[in-house]
Amino acid sequence: MPKIKKVKKNAPPPAGYSKLEPTLTKYQAKLKQAQKVDTTTNKHASLWKIYQIDHQISRYVYDMYVNKRISRELYDWLLLQSYVNKDLIAKWKKPGYEKLCCVSCIMEKNHGGTCICRVPKVKLLENDNEDKVKTECITCGCKGCASTD
Ligand SMILES: [Zn+2]
Ligand SMILES: [Zn+2]
What we know:
Elements: H1 17-36, H2 43-66, H3 72-80, H4 86-92, H5 108-111, H6 121-126
Bound molecules: zinc ion (2 copies).
């Protein structure tokens, strides 16, 4: 097994970072914009935006790593930075959680059980209550992130 070099948080970016930098910078700017929005008028919607961007950045970095487009060293380094949501990525590695939208969805205390967006669409249709039931995740606005959807 090749030895994996331990990366430090304050270390300079490993090789390959410049390839991701423009995209990451773009996402960071979007995030800042979303955070500036007045949260008093539409609290939920503005928070959703932040969660969604957070999800997109994490997904971008994770996909790059899974498709071997970035090195393990760079991936580890990015995880140490505040760019990505480490907890969310950790969940994606588990079967059935590949598309999880936000970590709150699986935390019982926030939803009093599994979030509605985690219920597969087929199940919702089976029960014929698709339009009667709110299918959005209250934390991030996700409209369904079950792995089978
Ligand atoms: Zn969801
Ligand atoms: Zn969610």
